[in-house]
């Protein structure tokens, strides 16, 4: 799994969200690194955090747990949280688990 921020953390703008690009697999072996990176990204940006999943090939239950946990933490901090571009397989997983109703997905 590779994790990249769209802009150096610490630089804020009034309109642009903080975007974290994730690629590869999100599984038991990589979910801790993803959780750490997303937690570090929460305080930055304009109060919006977007996780770009367009390059994620696989996500297991531990990855879903990270996304749900970050959404809860973001909400408590007043940060809008969204997922962008999940591939069809991940979109189906979100739908089957019902997480598509609680995790905001943007185009």
From TrEMBL:
Q: Which Gene3D superfamilies match?
A: STAS domain (3.30.750.24)
* Residue stretches making up the STAS domain: 19-107
InterPro entries associated with the record: Anti-sigma_ant (IPR003658), STAS_dom (IPR002645), STAS_dom_sf (IPR036513)
One GO molecular-function entry: anti-sigma factor antagonist activity
* Coiled coil start-end: none
Q: Which domain of life is it from?
A: Bacteria
Q: Tell me which family the UniProt entry assigns to this protein.
A: Belongs to the anti-sigma-factor antagonist family.
Name of this chain's protein: Anti-sigma factor antagonist
Q: Which organism is it from?
A: Nonomuraea muscovyensis
